[in-house]
Design goal:
The structure holds 2 protein chains of 2 kinds. By secondary structure, chain A is mainly α. Chain A is built from 10 helices and no strands. In chain A, helix 3 runs antiparallel to helix 5 and helix 6 packs parallel to helix 10. Chain B has 10 helices and 13 strands. In chain B, the strands form 3 sheets. In chain B, strands 6-7-8-3-9-10 form a 6-stranded mixed sheet, sandwiched between helices. In chain B, strands 2-1-4-5 form a 4-stranded antiparallel sheet. In chain B, strands 12-11-13 form a 3-stranded antiparallel sheet. In chain B, strand 7, helix 6 and strand 8 form a beta-alpha-beta unit. Chain B has 2 domains: 214 residues, P-loop containing nucleotide triphosphate hydrolases (Rossmann fold); 56 residues, no CATH class. The two termini of chain B are 30 Å apart. Chain B is α/β, with parallel strands linked by helices. In chain B, 43% of the residues are buried. Classes of the chains: A mainly alpha, B alpha/beta. At the A-B interface, helix 1 and helix 4 of A face helix 3 of B. Chain B: GO terms for molecular function: ATP binding; ATP hydrolysis activity. Chain B: Belongs to the ABC transporter superfamily. Chain B: It comes from Desulfomonile tiedjei.
Chain lengths: 248, 277
């Protein structure tokens, strides 16, 4: 039986993921940031915040789903790829194997998506318990998949361009962390100062947050969906190109 | 099997490979000998599609490595200098992933056969992180053989191994050679190059400074070395083309001398004035 060319890359990541899951440290690291935010903003500050249409916890859960799917899809791919390329040299096995760059890209992105979906799944489970009006809508599901795909692809890009492992943390601090806070995860983007709003609209997580909170497809939701698709394609193409042109 | 012409590769201002040309015949073991930084690993990276040259031509089995790397990847196996096994996977899983990547048919039988070749079949379900350095090196060789490659590249296969494990690795390479594969091996172990290679290329500062059989290389500089210690305590070496000439040199010396056969390190020292370390 022949398997798709991306499958061994995906399988390798899944076997490693399975081993990591057995260790309690992995679950803890995947959950720690969203749980802290949930307790601090949702159960702590959130009790005194009233949103326009809903309670704050129901507002917050989709944001945390977007944020944790972003960080897990992105960080695990960027970090693993960077380490495998620069230190463990196991990425070189993929470059020397007779598989196209697109297959390597698909395998890495799918593996990143699984990690993002796993973390998001934990938040969704918490949401069902704590947020009475939280709904798992088809739009949330689609946005979640796109969010995982685009940030896993961005993770490949970062993993390929960083020159040291420390650079990965720098990218994280400059792009991912601010995005987590200013893209409508914890408060509506209308509350952000006017001059910063154009920047916020450029951030992919902003659009993931918009789609995840909607229950029906309206024109602005559709625009955000298209933006997510375009970002996913852009990062995928750039990542694939970086793998194809890889040279030590 | 391998045809290289005018190959050049820079890293910034460092010229790692300089206008290098050579050919390697099919079914032979070719050794690249040189000190650290001579360009051996860069040349292996260029041949195994891991690095792209700045200029020059590079053909393996009539496939252009630069224009058609996928064709070359299908026929090659690589044992890298640095252990790049997945440490958190078992030996079997490492080989299974590799077999899938290289579309190996009858992968289960081939994995078993390769693991038996390197005496690791009994340890197949153990994590690689629990293996010793020698076992990991043997597993790297098994992995490279899994796709039944026409050409095998071994970059310093014995580096960091104790003499006993080095001998085991050398035995495995001899068995591979019997299969009629082309083998390219880089090493800075003189004995390894002499005992395993049909032809040896000596690299220094990115350039190929000599290329011949080990016997011819040694014969060209002189087959005997007379060594003595000078009054200043320095090692003095005289190269002789015959045993008789060596005996005359020894007789004329006014101190104790040792006569020994020349080796590839003597060739290297003669050509570059440096030692291989």
């Amino acid at each position: 039986m022949t398997v798709p060319a991306f499958y061994p890359i995906f399988l390798r990541e899944m076997l490693l993921f399975k081993r990591k899951l057995i260790r309690i440290g992995y679950l803890f690291s995947a959950m720690v940031a969203p749980v802290i935010y949930l307790v601090t903003f949702g159960l702590g500050l959130g009790r005194s915040v009233q949103m326009k249409d809903t309670d704050y916890l129901t507002y917050l859960i989709p944001g945390l789903v977007a944020m944790s799917s972003m960080t897990n899809s992105y960080t695990w791919v960027a970090s693993a790829l960077n380490l495998n390329r620069l230190y463990f040299k196991s990425f070189q096995i993929l470059i020397q194997a007779p598989v196209p760059a697109s297959a390597v890209m698909i395998g890495e992105v799918l593996a990143g998506m699984v990690k993002g979906l796993f973390a998001a799944g934990l938040i969704i489970a918490v949401g069902f318990v704590l947020a009475p009006h939280f709904l798992l809508t088809p739009l949330l599901g689609i946005a979640l998949l796109l969010n995982c795909a685009l940030f896993a692809s961005l993770g490949v890009v970062t993993g390929m361009i960083t020159k040291t492992h420390e650079d990965t943390a720098t990218y994280n601090n400059f792009f991912i962390l601010p995005m987590a806070f200013f893209s409508g995860t914890f408060f509506p983007i209308e509350k952000i100062p006017e001059m910063l709003r154009p920047v916020v609209w450029l951030l992919p997580l902003t659009h993931a947050n918009i789609v995840m909170r909607r229950h029906s497809l309206e024109w602005d939701t559709a625009v955000s969906l298209v933006v997510l698709v375009l970002y996913a394609i852009l990062f995928f193409v750039v990542g694939e190109r970086l793998i194809r042109n890889y040279s030590e | 099997m391998i045809r290289i012409r005018g190959l050049t590769k820079h890293y910034g201002k460092i010229q790692a490979v300089q206008n290098l040309s050579l050919t390697v015949d099919a079914g032979t073991v070719f050794g690249l000998l040189g000190p650290n930084g001579a360009g051996k690993t860069t040349l292996i990276k260029l041949m195994t599609t891991l690095a792209k040259p700045d200029s020059g031509e590079l053909f393996i089995d009539e496939h252009d490595v630069i224009k058609d790397p996928l064709a070359v990847k299908k026929i090659m196996g690589v044992v890298p200098q640095e252990n790049n096994l997945e440490r958190e996977l078992t030996a079997y899983e490492n080989l299974l992933i590799y077999a899938m990547l290289h579309r190996v048919s009858n992968s289960q039988e081939k994995i078993a056969s390769c693991l038996r070749l390197v005496d690791l079949w009994e340890r197949r379900d153990e994590l690689v992180s629990k293996f010793s350095g020698g076992m990991q090196r043997r597993l790297l060789i098994a992995r490279a053989l899994l796709s039944d490659p026409k050409i095998l590249f071994l970059d310093e296969p014995s580096i960091g191994l104790d003499p006993q494990i080095r001998r085991q690795v050398a035995d495995i390479i001899r068995r591979i050679r019997i299969d009629g594969r082309t083998v390219v091996i880089t090493t800075h172990y003189i004995e390894e190059a002499e005992s395993l290679c049909d032809r040896v290329g000596i690299l220094a500062k990115g350039s190929l400074i000599a290329l011949d059989t080990p016997e011819n290389l040694k014969a060209n500089i002189g087959q005997y070395i007379v060594e003595s210690i000078s009054a200043e305590g320095k090692l003095v070496q005289s190269i002789c083309h015959s045993r008789e000439q060596a005996n005359i040199v020894a007789r004329d010396a006014d101190c104790q001398v040792v006569i020994r056969k020349s080796n590839l390190e003597d060739v290297f020292i003669k050509l570059t004035g440096e030692r291989i370390e």
